[in-house]
Amino acid sequence: MLRNILKGFINVPKSEFNLARFSSFRTLNQKENQQQKENVRPNYENRQRNLDLAFETNAILSTYPEIHEELINEQLIYHQNYPDLKLRFSKLLDHHLKLDPKYLARAIFMVHAYRLLEKPSVLNQSNLKNAYVLGWCHKMHDASLLLDDDIADAADTRYNKPTWHTLPDVGVNQAILDAAFLETGANILILNHLSSHPQCINILKSILKSFSITNVAQIFELQQFKMEEVEKYQNFIKFYHYNLPLIKSALYLANIDDESIHAIAEEICLEIAVFHKIHLSQGSVVAT
């Protein structure tokens, strides 16, 4: 059903498709502009949908102990006789993954997207478990990138607590290696749980591609651009979708590999990414 619905969008001319998608937002903007002219405070009530993510949140949190144990056993397979090493990497995982749900949005929304896209007839416990694992994989890739980013930015806090590399028993050198531990752990989970899935290669490739491009794009995070370079910065944003990997993974996990559907997802996610990532501040464009 989803395939047919999205194909219906594809048959609409692009200009009409864009107009249809954003007509409601444009109407709201027109009303707000009129209200501003009349010095009337805009009414922002009822513009946000309330999403019930209790199922996804509980599923992600309840899966963590199993994920934690699997990661330790897999990556320390040749170091079982070093209990101190096990404690250290357990601390690493807990520091970056055992978090308040508000910091687990990537994992939670991965599961939410899959539940919306998958056929109800195959939403069984086994397939849902794959979604939970894939959600954690996205969070681990994100944690790996953030760990490196905190080092580059000399950041002091993350998740309302000291950054990993600033802890006395860690330091920058070990933290760099720990970022790799998180990344490889995510890839191991994908191979362990999704190797028999028909879209496993596409899932892994899309996640690795996103990770690689985002890593390269971090160079731009350390720079500022002048107003005349705003187009250059927007081109960078095209490779910095914070939500596209989640949607593509959910599509592939639901066995939806139609290129035209993925193209629509990329277009929508790009516009969201640009809106989220760019803001103007005192004549320069900076990354948030």
TrEMBL record:
<comment type="similarity">
    <text>Belongs to the FPP/GGPP synthase family.</text>
</comment>
<protein>
    <submittedName>
        <fullName>Farnesyl pyrophosphate synthase-like</fullName>
    </submittedName>
</protein>
<dbReference type="GO" id="GO:0005737">
    <property type="term" value="C:cytoplasm"/>
</dbReference>
<dbReference type="GO" id="GO:0004337">
    <property type="term" value="F:(2E,6E)-farnesyl diphosphate synthase activity"/>
</dbReference>
<keyword id="KW-0808">Transferase</keyword>
<comment type="pathway">
    <text>Pheromone biosynthesis.</text>
</comment>
<keyword id="KW-0479">Metal-binding</keyword>
<dbReference type="InterPro" id="IPR000092">
    <property type="entry name" value="Polyprenyl_synt"/>
</dbReference>
<dbReference type="GO" id="GO:0042811">
    <property type="term" value="P:pheromone biosynthetic process"/>
</dbReference>
<dbReference type="GO" id="GO:0004161">
    <property type="term" value="F:dimethylallyltranstransferase activity"/>
</dbReference>
<dbReference type="InterPro" id="IPR039702">
    <property type="entry name" value="FPS1-like"/>
</dbReference>
<dbReference type="Pfam" id="PF00348">
    <property type="entry name" value="polyprenyl_synt"/>
</dbReference>
<dbReference type="GO" id="GO:0046872">
    <property type="term" value="F:metal ion binding"/>
</dbReference>
<dbReference type="GO" id="GO:0045337">
    <property type="term" value="P:farnesyl diphosphate biosynthetic process"/>
</dbReference>
<keyword id="KW-0460">Magnesium</keyword>
<dbReference type="InterPro" id="IPR008949">
    <property type="entry name" value="Isoprenoid_synthase_dom_sf"/>
</dbReference>
